[in-house]
């Protein structure tokens, strides 16, 4: 029996991979305009890194990680997200000697979740992190970049939700208030939330179980409990977002699934996605670098879910340059073929040469099945004329075209449809 892939793990096939590359390239070139550079981080890290950064009592660490012993018996984990590795690299490689670091990345992440549309066990993220700047302007500008990115791809109808989770000075008091509230509704909370309300009551606000959603209606709101500094920071983020002209909704229940966040958090959702509707999410994590042993470094970052972004975009958003097929007829045309095909490719036109040496009829059929929009035929007659027969497969027309100027003519016909 043939071997199949693992549940929740996808192949990104040629029909989609071109769009993915375009999505990634558009991201990196746009992010570059804001001063970001790419960092390539490992897919596997020591398990401890994720436990300490994401938090022991989060769903990710408690039940979603792909953890395994390596040959020595040391505990390794396939990365469930990118921020922890970026911060680890930032500290280990002493990137903090620069006043600020702006890093972006892309690659697969792994979480043992229940696979469904928009939720997989291996999924890709595009992420960006600004390390070393506490300014609310950074939060707003990074969100502006994200919104401009979606606009550049042609994404429509996304909604930006923001919140502030406060800081070490004001969150403990909020936690106490929330805990007091949750204690009174404990009988309606799920087992998981009951178990962890003592250590991490905020998790109950992020829980997707219907009972918990219902039980936490009317819970105290963090935005009412912010200290003066966090409040000012949040107000400045909001007014800067308005300067950029971005609408947003303050959602004071949004706590996010990772413990390292402080102050600004956000989520971008799309109505086109159904229940897995978050396309991107992130926020500030001002104490993580220090907690992992680095210098005091306030940070802001986000991650976009590639599969969900591709779902929002649909298949019509990106069309690669169509393939043309080149058919040389007879041994005498070999030398000319090499030059023509090379020149076409050098001018950026995708060409597949047909080497099959069968009848013209079967070669034309093959070109059609390859989806060729144009077919070029070079036989003895064309060779004598320094021309090719150029067939337009969609229109069913053909004409004799000189080698000289073939690239520009083909490029023109490929775009003028
Ligand atoms: P969700 O609430 O949908 O589970 P999350 O809060 O766990 O998302 P983050 O950890 O913040 O998400 O990751 C950022 C983005 O990565 C999400 O907004 C989503 O687009 C994407 N993402 C997260 N988990 C998955 C998954 N299992 N499959 C596909 N995409 C995912
Ligand atoms: Mg999740």
Beta-strand content bin = 15-25%
Q: Give the low-pLDDT segments.
A: none
**CATH superfamily name of the largest domain?**
Bira Bifunctional Protein, Domain 2
Corresponding CATH architecture of the largest domain = 2-Layer Sandwich
Helix fraction bin: 25-40%
The largest pleated sheet is described as: 8 strands, mixed
Distance between the termini: 46 Å
Q: Specify the overall morphology.
A: elongated
Helix tally?
Answer: 16
Output mean pLDDT. Answer: 95
Number of strands: 16
Strand order of the main beta sheet, please?
1-5-6-11-10-9-7-8
How many domain regions?
Answer: 2
Ligand roster: adenosine-5'-triphosphate, magnesium ion
Describe, in plain words, how this protein is organized in 3D.
- With 417 residues, the chain is an alpha+beta fold.
- The protein folds into two domains: 16-170 and 226-317, Bira Bifunctional Protein, Domain 2 (BirA Bifunctional Protein, domain 2), CATH 3.30.930; 325-410, Anticodon-binding domain (Rossmann fold), CATH 3.40.50.
- The chain is built from 16 helices and 16 strands.
- It has helices at 14-33, 47-54, 59-64, 83-92, 136-153, 171-184, 191-196, 203-206, 210-215, 228-243, 288-291, 306-313, 334-346, 360-369, 380-384, 406-415; strands at 37-38, 44-46, 66-69, 75-78, 101-110, 122-131, 158-164, 249-250, 262-270, 278-284, 299-305, 324-328, 351-353, 374-378, 387-392, 397-402.
- Strand 15 and strand 16 form a beta hairpin.
- Helix 1 (14-33) packs antiparallel against helix 5 (136-153) and helix 5 (136-153) packs parallel to helix 10 (228-243).
- The radius of gyration is 27 Å and the shape is elongated.
- The protein binds adenosine-5'-triphosphate and magnesium ion (MG).
């Amino acid at each position: 029996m043939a071997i199949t892939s693992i549940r929740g793990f996808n192949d990104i096939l040629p029909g989609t991979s071109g769009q993915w590359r375009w999505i990634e390239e558009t991201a990196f070139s746009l992010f570059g305009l804001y001063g970001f550079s790419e960092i390539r981080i490992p897919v596997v890290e020591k398990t401890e890194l994720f436990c300490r950064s994401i938090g022991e009592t989060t769903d990710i660490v408690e039940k979603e990680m792909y953890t395994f012993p390596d040959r020595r018996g040391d505990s390794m984990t396939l990365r469930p997200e990118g921020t922890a590795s970026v911060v680890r690299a930032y500290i280990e490689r002493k990137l903090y000697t620069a006043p600020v670091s702006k890093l972006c990345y892309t690659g697969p992440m792994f979480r043992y979740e229940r696979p469904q549309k928009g939720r997989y066990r291996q999924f890709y993220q595009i992420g960006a992190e600004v390390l070393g700047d506490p300014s609310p302007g950074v939060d707003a500008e990074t969100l502006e970049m994200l919104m401009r990115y979606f606009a550049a791809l042609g994404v429509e109808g996304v909604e930006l939700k923001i919140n502030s989770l406060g800081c070490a000075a004001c969150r403990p008091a909020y936690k106490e208030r929330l805990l007091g509230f949750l204690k009174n509704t404990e009988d309606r909370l799920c087992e998981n939330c009951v178990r962890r309300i003592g250590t991490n009551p905020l998790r109950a606000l992020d829980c997707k179980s219907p009972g918990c959603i219902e039980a936490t209606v009317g819970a105290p709101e963090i935005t009412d409990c912010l200290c003066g500094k966090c409040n000012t920071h949040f107000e400045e983020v909001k007014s800067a977002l308005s300067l950029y002209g971005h609408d947003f909704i303050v959602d004071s229940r949004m706590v996010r699934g990772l413990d390292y966040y402080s102050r600004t958090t956000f989520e971008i959702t799309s109505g086109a996605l159904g229940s897995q509707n978050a396309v991107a999410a992130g926020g500030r994590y001002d104490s993580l670098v220090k907690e992992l042993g680095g210098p005091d470094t306030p940070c802001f970052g986000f991650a976009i879910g590639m599969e969900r972004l591709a779902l929002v975009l649909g298949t019509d958003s990106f069309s690669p340059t169509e393939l043309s097929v080149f058919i040389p007829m007879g041994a005498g045309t070999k030398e000319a073929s090499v030059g023509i095909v090379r020149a076409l490719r050098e001018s950026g036109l995708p060409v597949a040469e047909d080497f099959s040496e069968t009848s013209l009829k079967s070669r034309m059929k093959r070109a059609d099945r390859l989806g060729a929009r144009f077919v070029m035929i070079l036989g003895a007659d064309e060779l004598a004329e320094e021309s090719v027969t150029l067939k337009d497969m969609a229109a069913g027309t053909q004409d004799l075209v000189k080698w000289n100027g073939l690239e520009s003519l083909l490029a023109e016909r490929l775009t003028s449809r």
